[in-house]
């Protein structure tokens, strides 16, 4: 039995998406060419831009294609900072592409978060009230590692009260939470196609029309912000993924089934992050006394794929910056695994996961592997 529980890292292509992409392989024209072959490619991009705009309740001229979520983050942050002299406030549990990007800037400061990863609103209010520079607040809609969903509307409204702007990284949330940029009144946001069944290498940046950005890559494409010939297949895959995506099917049922089994049957384990405001598919557990990497490998040997955190960090054995930022006990930081469900798991699969989790946890604690 093979059970993939790492959908927070990436999602598989559906059969219909694969079939659609194969049908496009003969559309090879450069979208910048003004002949009939090039126009076919350009039409694909235009159609998907319209679909994305409808998907997030935006105008299509405010949608820009990038090569992924990290590129969208970088374009928004570096592009804005290059145009405006601003004071940056950022979530310390944001994606690594954000944390590395803000290191380059003088007036860049981390916000405070509590043990569940929620931004400290009082501290944010104090920082907004004391800055003499234009304010730029950067945060993730939901943390892809620990699963906590921020109070984004409250944060955005507070930032706007102090005449600041916001960037919202939605790559971790886009699979579970519908995005309405007008309802949220977010200034800029981004996400990645492969989190909702599209190909890797395609991302989206949304920005309001009145915000100017310096280019990420120089060229003529994407209104001069992201130069280079467009990734037609990646963009097309996003369009097909959006067409097939159904938020009404997103449920915490399978996650909760496994969580309740763990709490009842595997001692010295606990949930990391918020229980109430949590991504529906995310289960991030600490199994005290067990090394997370060993747990992940042993589960993989039994046909269950999980991770020890977000995909951008799991290749490293260093402590998770998100767990450190929320003040987690140092002895527990390396004892965590993340399971992210598709929602399509069968009862047989869920029972196998539960039984295998207990079996592997017992073996690791007794060192019988």
Give a short synopsis of this structure.
This protein is an alpha/beta fold.
Can you characterise this structure?
The chain has 12 helices and 12 strands. The chain has helices at 15-23, 36-56, 69-83, 96-102, 121-130, 152-161, 181-184, 232-244, 253-265, 292-301, 321-325, 347-366; strands spanning 3-4, 63-66, 86-90, 108-110, 134-140, 165-169, 188-192, 203-207, 269-271, 282-287, 304-305, 336-340. Helix 2 packs parallel to helix 8 (232-244), helix 3 (69-83) runs parallel beside helix 4 and helix 10 crosses helix 12. It starts with a strand and ends with a helix.
Layout of secondary structure:
Layout: E1 3-4, H1 15-23, H2 36-56, E2 63-66, H3 69-83, E3 86-90, H4 96-102, E4 108-110, H5 121-130, E5 134-140, H6 152-161, E6 165-169, H7 181-184, E7 188-192, E8 203-207, H8 232-244, H9 253-265, E9 269-271, E10 282-287, H10 292-301, E11 304-305, H11 321-325, E12 336-340, H12 347-366
Parallel strand pairs: 1-11, 3-4, 3-5, 5-6, 6-7
Antiparallel strand pairs: 2-8, 7-8, 9-10, 10-12
Mean pLDDT comes to 94
Q: Total number of helical segments?
A: 12
Approximate shape = globular
Helix content: 25-40%
Strand order of the largest sheet: 2-8-7-6-5-3-4
Strand count: 12
Order of helices and strands: EHHEHEHEHEHEHEEHHEEHEHEH
Distance between the termini: 20 Å
Strand content: 5-15%
Radius of gyration of CA atoms, rounded to a whole number: 21 Å
Largest sheet: 7 strands, mixed
């Amino acid at each position: 039995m093979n059970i993939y529980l790492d959908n927070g890292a990436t999602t598989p292509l559906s059969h219909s998406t694969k079939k659609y992409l194969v049908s496009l392989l003969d559309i090879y024209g450069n979208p910048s060419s003004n002949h009939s072959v090039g126009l076919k490619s350009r039409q694909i991009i235009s159609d998907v831009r319209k679909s994305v705009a409808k998907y997030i309740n935006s105008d299509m001229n405010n949608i820009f294609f990038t090569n992924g979520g990290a590129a969208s983050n970088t374009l928004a942050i570096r592009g804005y900072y290059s145009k405006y002299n601003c004071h940056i406030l950022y979530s310390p549990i944001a994606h690594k592409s954000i944390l590395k990007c803000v290191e380059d800037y003088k007036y860049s400061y981390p916000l405070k978060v509590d043990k569940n990863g929620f931004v400290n609103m009082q501290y944010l209010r104090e920082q907004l009230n004391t800055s003499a520079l234009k304010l730029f607040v950067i945060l993730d809609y939901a943390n892809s590692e620990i699963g906590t969903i921020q109070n984004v509307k409250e944060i955005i409204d507070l930032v706007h009260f102090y005449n600041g702007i916001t960037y919202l990284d939605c790559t971790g949330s886009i699979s579970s939470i519908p995005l309405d940029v007008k309802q949220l009144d977010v200034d800029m946001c981004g996400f990645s196609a492969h989190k909702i069944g599209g190909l890797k290498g395609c991302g989206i940046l949304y920005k309001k029309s009145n915000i100017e950005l310096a280019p990420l890559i120089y060229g003529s494409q994407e209104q001069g912000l992201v130069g280079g010939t467009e990734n037609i297949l990646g963009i097309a895959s996003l369009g097909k993924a959006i067409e097939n995506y159904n938020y009404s099917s997103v449920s915490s049922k399978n996650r909760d089934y496994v969580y309740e089994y763990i709490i009842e049957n595997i001692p010295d384990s606990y949930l990391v992050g918020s229980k109430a405001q949590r991504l529906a598919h995310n289960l991030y557990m600490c199994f005290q006394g067990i090394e997370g990497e060993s747990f992940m490998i042993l589960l993989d040997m039994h046909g269950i794929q999980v991770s020890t955190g977000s995909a951008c960090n799991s290749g490293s054995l260093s402590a998770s910056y998100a767990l450190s930022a929320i003040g987690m006990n140092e002895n527990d930081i390396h004892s965590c695994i993340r399971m992210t469900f598709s929602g399509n798991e069968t009862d047989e699969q869920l029972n196998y996961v539960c039984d295998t989790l207990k079996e592997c946890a017992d073996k690791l604690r007794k060192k019988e592997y």
